[in-house]
Task: structure prediction
Amino acid sequence: MIGKISAENLMKNLKVQLLLILSAALFVLKLFFSPINSVPLIIINEVLFVAAIIFLVLSIGDLIKAGKMNLLSLVMNLGILNAIMFFFITFSDSILNLFYSNLGDKIKNPDLIYLIISFFYASIFISSLSYTFLTFRQFYFTGQKREQSIYFSTMSVFFLLALSTAFLDDIKGLSYINNTFMLVSIILICGNSIHISWIAFLTKKEKLLLLVLSVVILTLFILNIAKSGEDTTHYKILSGFSPALKTFLYLMMIYGIVYFSILFFTTLFHIPTAEAYDRKAKEISSLQYFSRLITQVLDFNDLAETITDIAIKVCNADASWIYLKHDSQNRITANKNIGFVDAEVLSKFVLSEFRSAHDQLEKTIYHLNSVKNVPQLSEKYSSLNISILRVHSEVKGFLFAAKKGDRIFDDEDKDALNTFADYASVSIENAELLEESIEKERLEKELDVAREVQKKILPSKNPEYPGLDISATFIPAFEVGGDYYDFFEINENKLGFVIADVSGKGISAAFIMAEVKGIFESLSKTSLSPKDILISANQILKRTLDKKSFVSAAYGIIDINDKNLYVARAGHCPFLLLRNGVAQDLRPSGLGLGLNYTSYFASTLEEVKIDLLQDDVLVLYTDGITEAKNSLKEDFGERNFEKILLENSNLTAEEISNEVIRGVTVFSQNTTQHDDITLVIFKWKQKFNFIGEQEWQNSVPQSKIKET
Amino acid sequence: MAEFSTSIKDQGNINIVYLKGFLDAHTAPSLENTFSGLVDKGRYQIVVNFKDLNYISSAGLGVFMAYIEKIRENGGDIKLSSMSEKVFNIFDLLGFPLLYEIFKTEDEAVLKFNEKK
Result:
């Protein structure tokens, strides 16, 4: 890439260098062999000159290509250059004559001065004419797919031939050669001048400008050629410099006259259809706007903004806004160039006028001037257009556009806006669907996090104590129900345990759960009784729980040596004690944690002590089991639960648990589990008889104990 | 999840809120709106009738906790009535009867408010 560019640059530099060398050679030639009147000298002069023109044209061509100019500015430049040439042609007679007559006497070397002036004069014309030629070339190739054209190349070749043979014009008997080339060139000029399709793409304004410009430039071309008579100083300088230059001037002026004549008339005929063409062009560009909408569905508000933006462009409106249904209420979703209040007032007013006659709405352009009782607005609008935004033939909202002053909407505006509204509806729907799915995805991610938190919080394995068979089962619900259970190995004789259910669901429940774990973890290390642990936990939770949240919990301690169980309950499901084929409901009173932070809380709490007997089964659970629903929305219920427990109470803790889960699963098949299920079962085997067991049994904790 | 609805009946200074359907984490905001509407209007004497409520979850219970403090500070109360046994059990487990007055019928609850005056 870099190599290519530098090679191009090298070529450009080479052209410029050759141009300079040729110019210098020409200057030297003229300086030493002036006046040039022998045939060989003339030929050398012409060869150098034509070569210089070729390189000049190539150099300027590079410049124009690099600039990539707009066609109208090329026309403008052409006009300016012609005006300059006109200026020189007009004043060359008087100024130069005056100049020579004054200087001729005072300066030693008038020939040199004359040469420099003629060189300068000629350069201006050569440059201008080259630029003119290139501009025509540019015109020719605009709207053409090819970079090369045999017609244009042929014409260029004949131009060169005409230039090269210009000196033959002065030689008797040979002038027909030059005349022939000139004639062919002019014919080719006429042929090539009909390539003016580029004017079709101009807007009406640009066409009007072009019309004026072409008249002016045409006049300049005609004047320039008319004033280049043989007896003028101007003619003498140019033909003296090189007959080719004179020919070049004639050719370009003829090209200009032919081209701009055709351009003028064609533009003139295009003017009446210009407006229709503009409208078509606008329709095409609004199609592009529409496609822009499709890509802009990521942000709903951005989309709404874009819709109002485009609505304004589509019909040249002054203001636009969207009145969209949101939670069964219409409200302004986006407003452009109009105040929020104005938009709301106007929307309500117009919609109440039409009530539910939506079809009418779509066919009508609303002229505010002819309507009475228009509400007071901060700005005065004259014309309103309302398009309906529909999704699956349901009215989703309205797209308003308004114009001020004496500008009003016409039927074509109305059609364009209605079409646009259809596109807008589709993208609004897409945006809403996308938003929903993103929200859903976000919630799912959040729930993933919550489930992960919960999984980490729950114990990974059950503790092992002699004589105690432990099973813990946890089945999370999709929406993380906030269940928590834990074991605390206080020492080798004492096992603490907790079961809790945080109110609410999802990530917020998971966070409270994590905190609850921390609280019980640290409280379990103190020598507090279950009741005091719950009281302390309540106090600690006061700092973080909001009013709506609470935690039901039950805490217990099993003393292996004493064969005792101490439990307290803070609003949690009761413990079940299976003994001798009977399920005993242990329900010491107690408020849920977080329901009351005064001393009243402590006073509601009771603690129960139970002496454990051989094969006692203690069941802890959360309401996920008893409130499991079947397809008829019936609860699994305590009775079912107890029945399964009792039927299987002679099995191991693990087996009992499995039976319960199986029962619940069968009951609630074909429904989704909507709360966590936690089931912790202790089975007391009492196979161990420690020495000194009796001594331990007498040391009962000094807490409030209630026998059941 | 539009399986829950509330309606309000004015009975003098007392507002009776009827709950219907399933009150859970998804429908709780609807009841929150009802309560905050009443509190904003300064209507602090509220009886909640549970006659047609099929189910209440912990999130539903939380709604009562959210407003009770403010209501009681303003000399009002939320009294509960006409619960099915199942719903009462849920309240009972958490110890709500220790915090709220729960009545068998709506009339008893209304009577209790009037008695106090």
